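Forum: Protein Structure Q&A
Topic: Joint prediction for protein chains with partners

I've read a bunch of threads here and the consensus seems to be that you should model interacting components together rather than docking separate models afterwards. I'd like to see that in practice. Below is the full input, 488 residues plus whatever partners are listed. Could one of the regulars post the assembled result?
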Amino acid sequence: MTYCVGLNLKHGLIFMSDTRTNAGLDNISVFRKMHSWEIPGERVITLLTAGNLATTQAVISLLEERNKSADERIPYLLQAPSTFQAAQIVADTLREVIARQAETGQKADSTFNATIILGGQIKGGAPRLFLIYPEGNFIEAGNDTPFFQIGETKYGRPILVRAYDPDMSVEDAIKLLTVSFDSTVKANLSVSPPFDIQIIEKDSYRLGRSWRMEADDPYYTTVSQNWGEALKAALESLPAFHFD
Amino acid sequence: MTYCVGLNLKHGLIFMSDTRTNAGLDNISVFRKMHSWEIPGERVITLLTAGNLATTQAVISLLEERNKSADERIPYLLQAPSTFQAAQIVADTLREVIARQAETGQKADSTFNATIILGGQIKGGAPRLFLIYPEGNFIEAGNDTPFFQIGETKYGRPILVRAYDPDMSVEDAIKLLTVSFDSTVKANLSVSPPFDIQIIEKDSYRLGRSWRMEADDPYYTTVSQNWGEALKAALESLPAFHFD
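Posted by a regular:
Agreed with the consensus. Here's the joint model:
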């Protein structure tokens, strides 16, 4: 599995993804699940991918190739007039890849499906965040659900639901994401550091800070060690239960 | 879906289960998923069930009937010499019911599977807790994993993993379970109050306190309202993230 989150904050977009892929429990590897394209000053687009690795790699490669061969008739990501159109291009590419693999008549233990979070900003529009389904349709994050998760989403969801605030600072959002990822890692073997983190500041039209948080990252280990205690203290702070 | 938890504490066993069942989103009902048998002073056994409702009801009915017709040759729950043997009887009954439904050749949208937590104490033995799989095999909670969850387990797991302590008081355990259930209810429509709660005190060999926590239960609503704030405060208490 995988765990990726995209947050839409007042300050911009923040992405975080783990890097574990596994084909069976004894075949695990580190793969980057975060991919970005930019024309500084004009547009920036980031994808987070979850699902079949062959599918997601094919989607990324096709998007890359089409960006490079500008004479192809298929509209490409760096020409899309809006993030909505960019999401449409990615969605079409995803559907195309899945359909091609399904067509061969081969059967796999798992499906060829994949899910993608797309976030970015193109000059003339606001920062936007989309969730693209394997069927090739997609939804946009609104004010009511201003973040998307893909992959192994459940363990890390309660803290996001309770503590996410669109006005929060970038630093607070990274703290929140670190806790959400740590809760998932503690509960599920298929999600693991290192984590890739990226920030796209609103109206910057370029990739912002982007780094990899390793398993021995001092901030990650501090959060991981302290969160258990903090949770216990939170539980402690609730009114005690008493029998009548 | 369903959410049920069985905890093995130094003080005894605690069980909690939700009551929502659904066949589609527009067909939801309240059903009890907690079933107990006792011979006061000698034995007490509680089951929590998750999965296909027809399957779990058939299992409970068969166990009930066999308890009543003492002359049947199949060993029954109230005669099992140990909780291990009781778990074996329940597991065999579960496998039998699933096999019978699969035999008809009918296809259902969902499977006929079910999973069961069995906990109890029979004179001569310690309180024990088992997790019974649809295949009819089962595992026992040990010192390293002293609780079991079934159904929609992921949302409520992080708090259990971090805050469970076998030495905790019964009251603290109920607080912990209330938070775990609330986190699940907040994230998943298929789990809902009222919740059934039951306590089996160690070496009491009888059902202890047992009650239903309704959606408007004052303690539940207090925990539900305060947990969001408590979580935010916990997050606040962690060291802030700083860019270098």
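Chain A touches chain B through 39 residues (CB under 8 Å).
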